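Deliverable D2.4 — example input (structure tokens):
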């Protein structure tokens, strides 16, 4: 029988493992087999001092390019801190980052022996130094119940009176993947004061459940024990009156603090039976400002008109950029066929887009302030409440129109011109051919309506109007009976990303702007004025005059002056 190179290598490795077992007094009960995934395994018992440790070596499908790995035969056993969770593989001397095909499986077994001999009995902590720095994600990969506690929130918990219990609320966020993971975060401390925790603590979303915080009367040491032993001991730290209250309440989350350290227990009751779950408490990494000019936008307020495909992406990206305040306008409802391009998801179907987008932004950055109005700027009600709309927009630093609706643009342009507010707008052309991004900044550019006229004139000089299309959802009808061509999510995303940069430039000083020109036609594929993908045509506007010098509304002093000129009496 002829063997492949990989099969021949496996045979040699197995023969060497058999020889190692025969020559070593610390190896017993060797046996080859196959696991549920069809991988070759070698089971054995390792003798370490007076311990017998059943282990299993597994050859991965990509062996010998990747090393075999060793894990406990019992999937619930934790043998060392150099292990990826209960029942997980041991982190040994030979790993994917330093493995070479010339290394041997027998060397891997010897490495497991050295690690476990250095690990005291009934103690998962050995003196073996880690080959790579401990990182939080790897540590948490073996923890299905997690209690995220930032330092500022921990400080607030430790201010509670010793020996007293305090009502708290905790958010529980559940995710189901290879296993169920539950993340707990403090939402509020104290029912009467309603003390809110720092914004990096609670997040937005998840199920909010009541709990109790108990501050131990002294700084008692919380021992470093295995979870099964520790959780029962911690529960006994509670005074009898509090344990009775927890038992009478039923299921309860209990945070215990000794003034230096906090733990979270979930106490579940089923009749006379009690179960206690221990959460792994961890401190998240310190939040860093990753944007060069992110702090600049934190106090900025942006009004976004339109929460559709383009508007939702723009809003989400601006929230990630650190913009601190939003006003959202859109009276439309999200439907299932909108999901191919919208930032929102299935949970939002049937809800108004503006309100759902508000929730989306809060989940991206819980610190943002978001107002959502289900109102169309072209409806009769909008015309009747134009003064109110003007006042709302006047509180913003920037207005963005993402609707591609000429009526909406005219309304927004008129208000921005009167209130001297910068306006940024974008369009995605039918079929995903390309798009337009433009801005009109007082004292730098002509007013929006004038700028839009200049853009139309620029296109007329090219002899072709932009491909607006006859189909909705960024679509254009092809030749004859061809299916309509629609812009993809990626097409809309490209224009949205550039529109976000244009908006941030409008909020920035000229020396740090990325886009030097006020308008760009951006090509995504060949067609119309575009010779190739990413063919970009900047447009420079003409004179900047036309902005309203006096921002007084025509519904106020302006009306009074006109009435005086006409000789009309005020009959109010």
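Example output (designed residues):
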């Amino acid at each position: 029988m002829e063997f492949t190179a990989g099969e021949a290598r496996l045979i040699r490795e197995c023969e060497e493992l058999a020889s190692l077992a025969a020559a070593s007094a610390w190896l017993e009960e060797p046996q080859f087999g196959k696991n549920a995934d069809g991988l070759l395994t070698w089971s054995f018992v390792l003798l370490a001092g007076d311990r017998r440790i059943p282990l299993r070596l597994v050859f991965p499908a990509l062996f010998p390019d990747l090393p075999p790995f060793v894990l406990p035969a019992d999937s619930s056993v934790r043998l060392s801190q150099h292990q990826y969770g209960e029942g997980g593989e041991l982190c040994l001397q030979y790993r994917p980052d330093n493995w070479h095909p010339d290394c041997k499986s027998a060397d891997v077994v010897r490495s497991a022996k050295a690690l476990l001999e250095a690990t005291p009995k009934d103690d998962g902590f050995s003196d073996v130094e880690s080959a790579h720095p401990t990182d939080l994600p790897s540590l948490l990969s073996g923890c299905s119940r997690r209690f995220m506690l930032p330092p500022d929130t921990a400080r607030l918990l430790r201010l509670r009176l010793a020996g007293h219990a305090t009502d708290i609320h905790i958010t529980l966020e559940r995710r189901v993947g290879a296993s169920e993971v539950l993340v707990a975060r403090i939402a509020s401390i104290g029912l009467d004061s309603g003390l809110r925790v720092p914004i990096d603590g609670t997040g937005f979303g998840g199920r909010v459940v009541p709990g109790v915080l108990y501050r131990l009367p002294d700084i008692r040491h919380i021992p470093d024990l295995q979870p099964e032993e520790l959780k029962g001991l911690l529960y006994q730290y509670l005074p009898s009156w509090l344990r009775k209250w927890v038992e009478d309440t039923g299921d309860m989350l209990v945070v215990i603090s000794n003034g230096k350290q906090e733990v979270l227990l979930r106490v579940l009751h089923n009749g006379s039976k009690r179960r206690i779950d221990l959460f792994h408490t961890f401190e998240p990494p310190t939040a860093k400002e990753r944007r060069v000019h992110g702090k600049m936008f934190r106090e900025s307020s942006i009004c976004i008109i339109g929460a559709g495909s383009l508007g939702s992406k723009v809003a989400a990206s601006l929230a990630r950029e650190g913009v601190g305040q939003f006003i959202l306008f859109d009276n439309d409802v999200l439907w299932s066929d909108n999901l191919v391009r919208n930032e929102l998801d299935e949970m939002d179907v049937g809800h108004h887009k503006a309100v759902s987008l508000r929730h989306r932004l809060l989940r991206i950055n819980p610190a943002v302030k978001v107002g959502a109005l289900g109102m169309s700027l072209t409806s009769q009600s909008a015309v009747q409440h134009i003064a109110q709309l003007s006042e709302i927009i006047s509180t913003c630093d920037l207005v963005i129109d993402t609707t591609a609706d000429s009526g909406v643009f005219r309304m927004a342009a008129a208000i921005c011109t009167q209130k001297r507010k910068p306006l940024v707008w974008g369009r995605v052309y039918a079929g995903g051919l390309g798009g337009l991004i433009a801005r009109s900044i007082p004292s730098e550019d002509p007013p929006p309506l004038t700028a839009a006229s200049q853009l139309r004139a620029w296109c007329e000089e090219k002899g072709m109007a932009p491909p607006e299309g006859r189909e909705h959802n960024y679509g254009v009808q092809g030749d004859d009976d061809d299916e309509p061509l629609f812009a993809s999510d990626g097409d809309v995303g490209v224009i949205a990303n550039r529109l976000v940069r244009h908006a941030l430039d409008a909020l920035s000083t000229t020396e740090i702007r990325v886009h030097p020109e006020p308008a760009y036609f951006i090509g995504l594929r060949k067609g119309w004025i575009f010779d190739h993908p990413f063919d970009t045509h900047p447009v420079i506007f003409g004179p900047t005059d036309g902005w309203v010098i006096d921002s007084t509304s025509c519904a106020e002093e302006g009306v009074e002056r006109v009435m005086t000129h006409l000789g009309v009496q005020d009959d109010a």
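The longest helix spans residues 5-23.
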